[in-house]
Write a structure and sequence with these properties.
The structure is a single chain. The protein is α+β, with helices and mostly antiparallel strands. The chain has a single domain, classed as 2-Layer Sandwich (Alpha-D-Glucose-1,6-Bisphosphate, Chain A, domain 4).
């Protein structure tokens, strides 16, 4: 089930907890982007309508992500922060994307820059879900193109919208892991809620009279280390540079996708 209203259908109130569920077809509804027992789809739809209405009057600007890079003992750390003008559940889905919606730019062959190939639920425990995911990162270089397979284990929490991931297998990398957290951003609180600012979405809805837009604050960390044979200069410099640049490009794709979704 999609948390993004453009793709949402009706929710079955008697949802069975998936266990060892595999979706080779990413459009399958057996794998939840965000489990509907832990958010109110009707409220997300209302929040999205507020964004679309406001977008028609004055387009919202999402600033590019802030990326801080540090390298120590051959391990590269990326600390990333950015905001998007969409509800948190929608942004969370853009990261997991089990339905392979077109959030990332397509190449001339119609391939997304980052595609979800398959998702398998390994464990479900309340809001916590562990999934095995296969993605493909497309590349083009000097007229040649191909895909880099990425196999991840993702530990998701659909209640607090957090996730941690590790790689099960990835070309060129010895270490590839990270995390993300999506929090609500009460973008109209200064205008609608003074003098007492809200501490929750419930309080924000009350103080804004249901007219306050809810955006998203995203905090990410990504850690990677090239495989042993490649973790020597200058090859390691090249791999780090390409990985950092690719991460920034994917983040920019998400920023542009957010703008497009607000216009739907």
């Amino acid at each position: 089930m999609s948390a993004i209203p453009r793709f949402s259908g009706s929710i079955n109130p008697h949802v069975e907890e998936p266990h060892e569920v595999e979706s080779k077809n990413p459009a399958s509804n057996s794998v939840w982007a965000v489990d509907p027992r832990y958010y109110d789809l009707a409220e997300v739809k209302k929040e999205s309508k507020l964004w679309r209405a406001a977008e028609k009057k004055k387009p919202w600007y999402d600033a590019p992500a802030k990326v801080k890079v540090t390298t120590k003992k051959g391990i590269c750390h990326l600390n990333i922060e950015f905001k998007l003008g969409l509800p948190p559940e929608a942004v969370y889905e853009m990261f997991t994307n089990p339905n392979n919606f077109p959030f990332f730019k397509e190449d001339k062959d119609g391939r997304q820059r980052l595609e979800n190939k398959s998702t398998k639920v390994l464990k479900k425990d309340g809001p916590r879900q562990t999934t095995k995911v296969e993605k493909a990162l497309s590349w083009n270089f000097l007229g040649c193109s191909g895909d880099i397979p990425i196999h991840l284990i993702i530990h998701e929490n659909h209640k607090n919208l957090t996730a941690k991931y590790t790689t099960k297998k990835m070309m060129l990398m010895k270490v590839f892991e990270g995390s993300w957290k999506v929090e609500p951003d009460y973008v109209d609180q200064e205008r609608l809620c003074k003098p007492r600012l809200p501490k929750s979405r419930k309080e924000y809805k009350i103080c804004s009279g249901g007219q306050g837009k809810v955006g998203s604050k995203v905090t990410m960390e990504q850690i990677f280390q090239p495989s042993s044979l490649l973790n020597l200069p200058p090859v390691s410099w090249i791999i780090r540079g390409i990985t950092i640049r690719t991460t920034k490009i994917l983040l920019e794709d998400l920023r542009k996708a957010g703008t497009s979704l607000r216009k739907v």
